[in-house]
Amino acid sequence: ITVKKAQLYKTVFKPEDLPDTPYNEVAFVGRSNVGKSSLLNTVVKNYRLAKVSSLPGKTRSVNFYFINDKFFVVDLPGYGFAKLSKAEQQRWKKLIESYLIDRDKLKGVFLLIDAKVGPTEKDIIMREWLDYYGIPYCVVATKVDKLRKQSEKATLKKMIRRKLGIDEDIQIIPFSAKTREGRIEILKQIEQFLEQ
Ligand code: GDP
């Protein structure tokens, strides 16, 4: 895929506002501060799509980006922000679950894991949801420029597989918004998801 055009289509705060569209979509999810906005901006060619947040967890909405007038990239709200109130956490859960439960246009999800933090409890829950709803997914290890050696990448992948409870058939893509490593692999994976 070459991204020629990208535009924000809709920002959704409530489940009932989730749009019905005739186009297929792929979604990105992860804990807040995992580097999701940076990744989206890098992958979709620095169109400055998603605002890189200085305040983690600021974005509580589901953002739909229309790419090449052909498909959607869906930016799901980040989870695990400690300062979120119980009510806000409930709201987040309801929104994200309503999205995942009944989304026949959703062809694949990228689950983002911070290379330096590893999978958290909420990442494991997310992985379980994806399995439960039968949604194809892959894992992206973000901020891999922080790893000191290339060899750490193999260890990282093993650790992610073990903690997240996934086997070899689920792909793990190392990614850095700094070096742009992994950008092509993510675009390829988007294409594969959309072809399914
Ligand atoms: P989001 O909350 O998941 O959307 O995360 P952001 O994209 O806003 O990034 C959170 C923080 O991590 C920011 O301070 C970014 O500068 C930093 N960050 C994001 N991606 C990378 C990366 O690939 N490498 C490094 N070293 N830092 C990153």
TrEMBL record:
EngB-type G domain mapped to chain residues: 22-196
This protein's GO CC annotations: cytosol
Gene3D superfamilies reported in the protein's UniProt record: P-loop containing nucleotide triphosphate hydrolases
Gene Ontology biological process terms, A to Z: division septum assembly
Molecular function terms, GO-annotated: GTP binding; metal ion binding
Keyword line: Cell cycle, Cell division, GTP-binding, Magnesium, Metal-binding, Nucleotide-binding, Septation
CDD domains: YihA_EngB
Named cofactor requirement(s): Mg(2+)
PROSITE patterns: G_ENGB (PS51706)
Superkingdom, natural source: Bacteria
Its biological purpose: Necessary for normal cell division and for the maintenance of normal septation.
Family membership: Belongs to the TRAFAC class TrmE-Era-EngA-EngB-Septin-like GTPase superfamily. EngB GTPase family.
Protein name according to UniProt: Probable GTP-binding protein EngB
Species this chain originates from: Desulfurobacterium indicum
Lineage, top ranks: Bacteria, Pseudomonadati, Aquificota, Aquificia, Desulfurobacteriales
Gene name, Swiss-Prot/TrEMBL: engB
